[in-house]
Design a protein that fits this description.
Methane Monooxygenase Hydroxylase, Chain G, domain 1, mainly alpha, two-stranded antiparallel sheet
Length: 424
């Protein structure tokens, strides 16, 4: 406070003194304090990197890059990276075996690369067949046969309200058996049905286009929910296969090829065309009675015709009131398919999430000679899984040997670059 009080007074006195005309002796400015230079601490020099560690790390990075390429099915890319992982060591001034750590890494590296090569050869040797998945129809019919729950009042009302406002092109009777099947699908089998709807979303537009062109009811597009869950490689205990679960004789009767290299029952487009032909044939045989058609699709047309002759009725529901004429699996199959049509048309009504997906799209390219699908993946920039998903009919990882200009499916937009690589 004293300092602040006296500062204005001293300033005023200085001004008055300056105004009196005197020449006071200039005051000598105090010498500035010497500036001390900052003491610089030398930055410690890091120790030189261990050259052996650097080489091993570089080799390891190339090897890991090769494994990533191999997982994608890119054989050439994998081979290039594996070669680099070895060359880094061989071309070093120290040699690959000059240090114990180098020797250990080099020996292990060669063993791992060799193991990958053996596995890759086995997968593409034309002998190793890819794995199949169990067809859902076996398990679903077992459940429906022994554990179909009665429909509760809420389900009964939901179905009644739904059918009143949703158009179907196949008659859906609101009887206990159909209602119980709806109860089963939205209850115990909810997760299975949801997964099937997700899997089938990309296929349904194509199926509906094929059936529309053939003049078939579009409700039939939901048959694969029960038959296979829309799995292309589903295989039943009876050796029926594919999304439409064809037996080999029926498949061949309707234009599908099956041999060592190829099984077109798994080709979604071709098997759908075959299913349309088969369903049209059955419709003609049973005068467009779609309940009988579905029974024949499951149990065989001969069995259904014999049952009709023995029972003296062509009404499926009268035909299946007793156990005399058709096996229980077929008796339960038809209500289950009808329930799938109900759920498939309006999934949100029954507690399922709405599923949207882009329609299946691809380019077709004829290949003049057999080609490994891993090479197709590499040349199109796709993964092996994607190529196999587009071509599930190819059983052994390569295109067929005896087919000239076999058309392989590649991701949409990659056809031209694949043709270029084929020609080079």
């Amino acid at each position: 406070m004293i300092l602040r009080t006296w500062l204005p007074v001293l300033a005023a006195a200085a001004i008055v003194t300056a105004g009196c005309g005197g020449n006071p002796k200039p005051q000598k400015a105090p010498a500035p304090a010497p500036v001390q230079e900052p003491v610089s601490t030398p930055t410690p020099t890091p120790p030189p990197a261990d050259p052996v560690t650097v080489l091993i790390e570089a080799s390891r990075k190339h090897f890991e890059a090769g494994e990533r390429e191999l997982k994608l099915g890119h054989l050439e890319g994998a081979r290039t990276e594996f070669d680099r992982s070895v060359d880094v060591l061989l071309e070093s001034p120290y040699g690959a075996r000059s240090d114990s750590r180098m020797r250990e890494h080099f020996d292990r590296l060669i063993d791992r690369i060799n193991a990958h090569e053996v596995t890759a050869l086995a997968q593409g040797d034309g002998f190793s067949e890819k794995k199949y998945e169990p067809a859902s129809i076996d398990e679903l019919l077992k459940i429906a046969t022994f554990a179909t729950p009665p429909a509760d009042a809420e389900t009964t009302k939901a179905v009644k309200d739904d059918l009143a406002r949703t158009a179907h092109d196949i008659d859906i009777p609101q009887n206990d058996r159909v209602l119980s099947a709806v109860e089963l699908l939205q209850g115990r089998l909810h997760d299975y049905v949801q997964e099937s709807l997700v899997r089938g979303a990309k296929y349904l537009p194509m199926i509906q286009n094929v059936f529309r062109a053939e003049g078939l009811p579009l409700d039939l597009a939901f048959i694969p929910i029960i038959e296979s869950g829309f799995k292309t490689n589903a295989l039943s205990r009876a050796s029926a296969k594919g999304p439409w679960q064809f037996m080999i004789p029926t498949a061949k009767d309707h234009g599908l090829k099956t041999d060592w290299f190829i099984d077109e029952r798994s080709d979604f487009e071709k098997s759908t065309v075959a299913a349309a032909k088969y369903l049209k044939m059955l419709a003609k045989m049973f005068d467009n009675d779609w309940h009988l058609v579905l029974a024949a699709y499951n149990g065989g047309q001969g069995r259904v015709q014999r049952a009709i002759q023995r029972a003296g009725t062509e009404n499926f529901w009268s035909l299946t009131e007793t156990q005399k004429f058709l096996p229980k699996e077929t008796r339960e199959y038809v209500p289950l398919i009808l329930a799938a049509m109900v759920v498939g048309r309006n999934p949100a009504q029954y507690g399922f999430e709405l599923v949207t997906a882009d329609a299946l799209a691809y380019d077709k390219v004829p290949v003049p000679k057999p080609i490994d699908l891993r090479r197709v993946a590499e040349w199109t920039g796709a993964s092996l899984d994607e190529i196999q998903s587009l071509n599930p009919e190819l059983r052994r990882g390569i295109t067929p040997i005896r087919y000239n200009d076999y058309e392989i499916k590649v991701p949409a937009g990659t056809g031209e670059q694949f043709r270029t690589r084929l020609a080079s």
